[in-house]
């Protein structure tokens, strides 16, 4: 008897006394929990997102759509970024004023090559206000997952208010579970047993979020 047959046999024995008309598993647990915590206006939702992003030590900027190219150029200059990694579907106008050399997202780019890039600029799929989380789904303006995990500096552009939701359940309704989802709550960080915080362990050391609206 294989391990698989042994395990399935135990499952069958455990379910032997369950009535045929018993409540299906999918309906056994009530799903009427809150979809969001409290009623907020659009402006209040965006404010909560900005507050929670900052609480996670992300650097938050705000601007209008026409100001975005100059803001991106300023942030890259302040970072002294000589190179910036650009997803294939990113709006070219966003970086029209930036001096940094563009680096294309290539399938053959390995970790060592990506580590030499100074900054990466992406859009996002959705942003969750209650958790201060940015979600990427590998879309054309976000690129592959690795380009936002290896470079040390990530600038993420969030379109306000259309890409901002209050809660995780609302975000999940917008996302395709078959896509490679990356959930980002602040810059990469971890702590040891003495709670000494170390940033940049498994992702960018610096996360800057631009709320454009």
Automatic annotation (TrEMBL):
This is LUD domain-containing protein. It comes from the Bacteria. Transmembrane segments: none annotated. It comes from Streptomyces asoensis. InterPro entries: FTHF_cligase-like_sf (IPR024185), LUD_dom (IPR003741), NagB/RpiA_transferase-like (IPR037171). Gene3D superfamilies: NagB/RpiA/CoA transferase-like. Residues 47-212 form the LUD domain.
């Amino acid at each position: 008897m294989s391990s698989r047959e042994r395990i399935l046999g135990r499952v069958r024995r455990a379910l032997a006394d369950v009535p045929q008309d018993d409540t299906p598993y999918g309906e056994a647990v009530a799903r009427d929990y809150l979809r969001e915590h409290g009623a907020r206006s659009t402006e209040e939702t965006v404010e909560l997102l900005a507050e929670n992003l900052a609480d996670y030590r992300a650097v938050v900027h705000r601007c209008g759509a026409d100001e975005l190219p100059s803001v991106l150029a300023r942030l890259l200059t302040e970072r002294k970024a000589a190179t910036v990694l650009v997803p294939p579907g990113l709006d070219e106008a966003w970086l029209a004023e930036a001096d940094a050399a563009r680096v294309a997202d290539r399938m053959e780019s390995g970790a060592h090559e990506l580590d030499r890039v100074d900054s990466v600029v992406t859009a996002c799929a959705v942003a969750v206000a209650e958790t201060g989380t940015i979600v990427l789904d590998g879309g054309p303006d976000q690129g592959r997952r690795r380009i936002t995990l290896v470079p040390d500096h990530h600038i993420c552009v969030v379109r306000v208010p259309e890409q901002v939701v209050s809660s995780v359940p609302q975000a999940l309704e917008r996302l395709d579970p078959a896509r490679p989802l990356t959930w980002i709550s602040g810059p990469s960080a971890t702590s040891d047993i003495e709670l000494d915080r170390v940033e940049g362990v498994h992702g960018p050391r610096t996360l800057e979020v631009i709320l454009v609206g």
